[in-house]
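Lab notebook, entry 205. We have the chain sequence and a SMILES string for glutathione, and the next step in the workflow is to get a structural model of the bound complex before anyone spends time on docking refinements. Request logged below.

Task: model protein plus glutathione, output structure tokens.
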Amino acid sequence: MIDLYLAGTANGLRAAVAMAECGLEFRAHKIDLTQGQQRTPEFLGMNPAGQIPVMIDHDTPGGRITLAQSGAIILYAAEKSGRFLPQDPVRRAAALQWFMLGATDIAAASGAIFQLEMVVQEKSEAITQHFRKRLLRFFGLCDAQLATGHEYFADEASVADFMIYPNYFARKALIDEAGGLTSLHAWGARMAARAGVQKGMNPFG
Ligand SMILES: N[C@@H](CCC(=O)N[C@@H](CS)C(=O)NCC(=O)O)C(=O)O
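Result returned:
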């Protein structure tokens, strides 16, 4: 059995989407970030960074494993299930390239917008706009890839799609406002129709 500690944020949800899509049974434990539950001694014992998501897999050949970082959890789920990391080396490389765009560029820009809109006290519209434009540029790259006949980033559904989808979902209003990006929206609809994505995006039932 796998225990997954998360909140309903893009970082948390992508771990749950990967678990569900890979067909791994997991128990979702809600961590209330607004109440500081990520800073309790018990939680810091699992992840000293004090951040969700955290996964504990009690059933591994070497005993149990505790893992943080949503990207590492997605890759762990893919390796454990033997799914969603394409066998073909070219597709696998493409999947990892788009996975990394999601993990570094997209997640970072989206996270910066969150910090600027919700956390930082001194507001700067110019800086916030900078990160909104930056995020839209990355989503533009995604759209261009999907527009050239790719149903998913690496043709078949892969870890890349699980990485990027929760940030797309969270930033849909901004993307809608920008207009266009029709291939990205078509992919978003394809993702939303998948049973594993539905389960992962609604981890607390
Ligand atoms: N790179 C990390 C980022 C994790 C992260 O930023 N988690 C946020 C919620 S989305 C968090 O736990 N923040 C609580 C805090 O920093 O106090 C990942 O992908 O897992």
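Notes for the group: The longest helix spans residues 89-119. Worth checking against the assay data. The radius of gyration is 17 Å.
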